[in-house]
Write a structure and sequence with these properties.
Layout: H1 3-16, H2 21-44, H3 51-76, H4 84-100, H5 106-129, H6 135-152, H7 168-171, E1 173-174, E2 177-178, H8 179-197, H9 199-209, H10 211-216, H11 221-247, H12 258-268, H13 280-299, H14 304-326
Helix pairs in contact: 2-13, 3-8, 3-11, 3-12, 3-13, 4-5, 4-6, 4-11, 5-6, 5-11, 8-9, 9-11, 12-13
GO cellular component, one term: plasma membrane
Organism: Halanaerobium saccharolyticum subsp. saccharolyticum DSM 6643
GO molecular function: transmembrane transporter activity
Length: 327
């Protein structure tokens, strides 16, 4: 085959793919946006692009990134979970009480905390899927229940003097890499393969794309939706555990606003609120964008209220362009 023929074949394949520059920007714009934001802060501040600060950004973003995994799964099914921040707080205070007041061994307390998070997610999923109560209302109610429970379980008081062995969860490192970064890498890798390679992941995408068609094709829609909320509760519990370890005390008021940050990370990462479209890796980048913005703006001494405005604008712009792309 001649060079001309080869060229024609390549061009034909390219054109057949119907991909333009705008299409590629639309598909990979979130990654480009992250690099641009990172580059801007690196230029305007000499203390931003350092090993210690980059590591700090990832660690600061890790808790929201972990919680956002479950939120991604839920949103992919065309749902929403407003209770994740309150679940994290409830798990935090329950974990502290188990370790300090009840004297439960750290490994068992951690296991029970994760189970509790999954059970709360199961309750959300059951009410939504089988009780047919809208996800917004169900998780809004659970947000109030979990937050109230976190305050009531110890009379609104924090729990301190946590076991030293528990601190390893946040202070350890592997080959010099902070353990929080390892958590993010492991959990995102596992969920990436679950969503892209396992049939449950395919079912989650299918339900978000068309729930009725999925039901008619034999997918157990209610069970799959319920499993999505179990994942959300489980990863919210993980976030609560990580937060407790990082603060070195358990507080019933912790996790406030985590639900909004998790949703923002998912949306900025390109997952459609209408369900069926999105990427777990996009969510990770979305969480890193939020962390990078907060870190960079803090280094530049931008007041907190302006930071909120800027992040709000970024969220709206991300949703706007995502909507334009899908229309």
């Amino acid at each position: 085959m001649s060079t001309l023929d080869n060229t024609k074949t390549m061009n034909g394949g390219f054109l057949a793919n119907d991909k333009t520059v705008l299409d590629y920007l639309s598909d990979y714009g979130i990654y480009l946006g992250f690099l641009i934001i990172f580059a801007i802060f690196s230029v305007v501040s000499s203390s931003f692009f350092t090993v210690s600060n980059v590591s700090n950004i990832i660690i600061q973003s890790s808790i929201i990134a972990i919680i956002a995994i479950g939120q991604t799964v839920v949103i992919l099914t065309e749902g929403i979970d407003l209770s994740v921040g309150s679940i994290a707080a409830f798990i935090s205070i329950a974990l502290g009480i188990m370790m300090v007041d009840l004297g439960i061994a750290v490994p068992l307390a951690l296991f029970l905390s994760i189970v509790m998070g999954a059970i709360i997610g199961l309750i959300n999923g059951f009410v939504i899927s089988y009780g047919k109560v809208p996800a917004f209302i169900t998780t809004l109610g659970m947000m109030s229940i979990a937050r109230g429970g976190a305050l009531a379980i110890n009379g609104g008081r924090p729990v301190s003097m946590l076991p030293r062995s528990f601190g390893v969860i946040s202070s350890a490192s592997v080959f010099g890499i902070p353990i929080f970064i390892i958590y993010v890498a492991v959990f995102y890798t596992l969920m990436y393969f679950l969503l892209t390679k396992h049939k449950l992941g395919r079912y989650i995408y299918a339900i978000g794309d068309n729930s009725e068609a999925s039901r008619l094709s034999g997918i157990k829609v209610k069970a799959v939706k319920t499993s999505a909320y179990i994942f959300s509760g489980l990863f919210a519990a993980m976030g609560g555990i990580m937060l407790t370890a990082r603060l070195n005390y358990a507080s019933p008021t912790s996790g406030s606003g985590f639900e909004l940050d998790a949703i923002a990370a998912v949306v900025i990462g390109g997952t459609a609120l209408s369900g069926g479209q999105g990427s777990i890796l996009g969510t990770l980048v979305g969480a890193l964008i939020l962390g990078t913005l907060r870190n960079g703006l803090s280094i530049l001494n931008v007041p907190g209220f302006y930071q909120q405005i800027i992040i709000g604008v970024v969220i709206i712009v991300a949703v706007f362009f995502d909507k334009m792309k899908r229309d």
